[in-house]
Amino acid sequence: MNFRQSKIKNFINNEDYTFVPAHFIDSTQDILTSIENVCNEAFIYEQLFKVRCKGEPYSIKNAEAFLDWAKEGFKKDSYYVFFILNSSQLPIGAIDIKSNDKEEAEIGYWLSSFHSGLMTNAVIELCKQAKSFGFKNLYGLCELNNLKSKSVLKRAKFADAGKIERNQKSYYKLQIKL
Ligand SMILES: CC(C)(COP(=O)(O)OP(=O)(O)OC[C@H]1O[C@@H](n2cnc3c(N)ncnc32)[C@H](O)[C@@H]1OP(=O)(O)O)[C@@H](O)C(=O)NCCC(=O)NCCS
Known about the structure:
Shape: globular
Structural class: alpha+beta
Oligomer: single chain
CATH topology: Aminopeptidase
Strand content: 25-35%
Number of domains: 1
Mean pLDDT: 96
Bound molecules: coenzyme A
Helix content: 25-40%
Low-confidence stretches: none
CATH class: Alpha Beta
Strand order of the largest sheet: 1-2-3-4-5-6-8-7
CATH superfamily: Gcn5-related N-acetyltransferase (GNAT)
Number of helices: 5
CATH architecture: 3-Layer(aba) Sandwich
């Protein structure tokens, strides 16, 4: 699937950012450091990485492994990670489609709080591209206390689809028919 690079706008500061498939970017030190810094921001670390990193900081090695894994997804055509780059071409956010199941695939995302105002538009762009490659339904899972994430999906026209349990945790499921 030839997902494309495109521009997305930050709703709050009106600046343009670049939405880019992971295999379009190089694993330079600056890029890895940017991923490391964002993933150690308190809200993102708490929501996504504290358990995975067993309470240790998200390291540059974690960033390198993530970027390698992200590029691999496009090679294998089995999952699709995109980065959001700032005007210095550094990644300040990421969004992914977690499988190639065209009937129903899960999405996930994180974004630096210093660039808030972008993720709704990134989800809308992801949906547009996914639809053009034949994805029929996408869904996201939000922890019950993660109202910011739920608002992103609602604003991008995902509908409530109840609660689900995964790994002994409850999540709101929101989905969209493309
Ligand atoms: C959840 C997360 C991605 C939100 O990113 P974000 O860019 O701040 O989200 P938004 O797109 O909603 O932008 C923030 C504000 O801009 C406004 N906005 C953005 N796009 C908009 C649009 N198209 N139309 C109207 N308002 C918009 C909203 O007012 C929104 O704030 P509000 O929900 O408090 O009202 C980010 O906080 C994060 O990374 N959290 C930690 C990781 C996480 O929870 N991931 C999700 C797990 S799947």
